[in-house]
Amino acid sequence: xxxxxxxxxxxxxxxxxLLSDDKHRxxxxxxxxxxxxxxxxxxWAPFPVDPSTIEAVVLTHAHIDHSGYLPALVKNGFKGKVYxxxxxxxxxxxxxxxxxxxxxxxAKYAFRKKFSKHAKPEPLFTEKDAWESLKHFESLHYHExxxxxxxxxxxxxxxxxILGSSCVHVHHKSSQRxxxxxxxxxxxEDVIMRPPEPLQKADVLVCESTYGDRLHADTxxxxxxxxxxxxxxxxxxxxxxxxxAVGRAQMLLYVIHKIMGQKRIPKLPVYLNSPMAIKATExxxxxxxxxxxxxxxxxxxxxxxxxxxxxxxxxxxxxxxYPCVIISASGMASGGRVLHHLKTLLPNPRNSVVFAGxxxxxxxxxxxxxxxxxxxxxxxxxxxxAEIHNMDSxxxxxxxxxxxxxxxxxxxxxxxxxxxxxxxxxxxxxxxxICEKFGWDAEVPExxxxxxx
Length: 453
Ligand SMILES: [Zn+2]
Fold this sequence. Notes:
This protein is α/β, with parallel strands linked by helices and 453 residues long. Helices cover 33% and strands 20% of the residues. The chain folds into 2 domains: 2-214 and 396-452, Ribonuclease Z/Hydroxyacylglutathione hydrolase-like (Metallo-beta-lactamase, Chain A, 4-Layer Sandwich), CATH 3.60.15; 221-394, 3-Layer(aba) Sandwich (Rossmann fold), CATH 3.40.50.10890. It has a 7-stranded mixed sheet. A 7-stranded mixed sheet has the order 7-8-9-10-11-20-21, with helices on one face. A hairpin with a 7-residue loop joins strand 8 and strand 9 (166-172). Helix 4 packs antiparallel against helix 5 (127-134), helix 4 (86-113) packs antiparallel against helix 8 (275-286) and helix 7 (248-261) packs across helix 9. The radius of gyration is 21 Å and the shape is globular. The model has no long low-confidence stretch (mean pLDDT 94). Bound molecules: zinc ion (ZN). The site of zinc ion (ZN) has 4 residues, from loops.
């Protein structure tokens, strides 16, 4: 069996791994590139193998950097099925059409502002393409094995990163080899997600390394957040939290309502301003057997959050002058409604902006957490006077220590580990740590490398 790295190599986005033998081709993850322009441009390159020759796709989870290229793959000739867990399917029904809509908006914007070299810029795919790709989906339960292509048996195990997230185990029957893709790996002690299930067997392991060179701060995130909110409210400011619509938005809502109930922060309105995050929250509450929150706790989130759905309500919220908390997408401030709030709130030192997840290089979120004095939004520069916080401790990715201890919990003796899904330095540090701790043979592959496994 051969494994080819078609993405997620040397960067955290664009996860795509191709497994093939003499007769069959299976793609694991079909992500979009995000972040700096050179990476985003890769989304426009022809897919490195003819999509019509791929028989099936298996997804680790719903985040766009793992699923977002699917509509383009289908548009370019992919005819097979897309397999994932039940919750991943539910979340993709929200995320993919939204991604198509955003592509169309971007193309229209480029046309209006004339910054495309094409007379009529086209979207990478449309909302309609996204709905078309969703017809190819088939969902399964964790631990239920299936054969997406003949001779390759696949199972999902919980990865603890977001709702529905999984490690993908592929057993190649004729060679009797098993390769495991970690996908994005969650935390050992996440507030809302259960820890990732230990891995039992892998001849080859493909492991993520988002935080391969970093440890999350050893602080109590609830206490840190309570202090930020109390201080900001005390000076009459607003706390803005750019958050990934799926995953971190639900965690933040839970933590904020919890500390408010314990009177550790003043009673103030909490807004969720993202139609996609609102839908993701509904899905999260519906799948309450898959995470740590009870039905009653989900109900509390539902009752105590002000959901901002329409554009009019969003504009009205933008003129709020009273202390409140606003959670809005996107998580790296690369698009979405959060941009309007940033324009209003950044220039005022009374306000605070709190980031709660990984900020990919080249994004506005990355610039802000690294102390930018101004940021460009909608063609204009906005001064950064608000307090900026980067709460890594709220991330949905395990740091290197957590990933190593997760690997240690399993019964693994892989012959080879490929370290992916990290910036160059992070992946290399992770590789060294895996070699040193376990004595396993680990390597950081380059984009388009193909290996025999
Ligand atoms: Zn993810």
